[in-house]
Hints:
By secondary structure, the protein is mainly α. It has 4 helices and no strands.
Amino acid sequence: MVRLSRERHERLEKLLMAEKTRLWTEVRRELFETLGQELRSQYDLPQDVGERSLIDVLADTGLVVADIRRQELTRMEDAMGRLAEGVYGVCEECGAEIGEERLRVVPYATHCVSCQARQEGPPHGSGVTL
């Protein structure tokens, strides 16, 4: 198994903390500033049934976005746990280090680019030709 150097561990920890802070900031902004103020002002105005339905759809959309952020934050917590265990930044499939460039883009990645591509690619021997 690959063991993280102290320097790499510190860089990856800073990367994770920055991403986690960014996500929490987005969640707070979306929920408390954007949705809260917009929906409160919308409900203060008289509306017909159609307008109220549109507002409900917008509120549901906001909740979907918040749920996506929650899922990302859960993945970030998992990544922080892997960092504490000393296995963050190591591919779960092949055991190689995951490049820091990849981790900057997908901080909760558990596979290197090659293994992720194999997982997402078409199955071998599917009989389909293009």
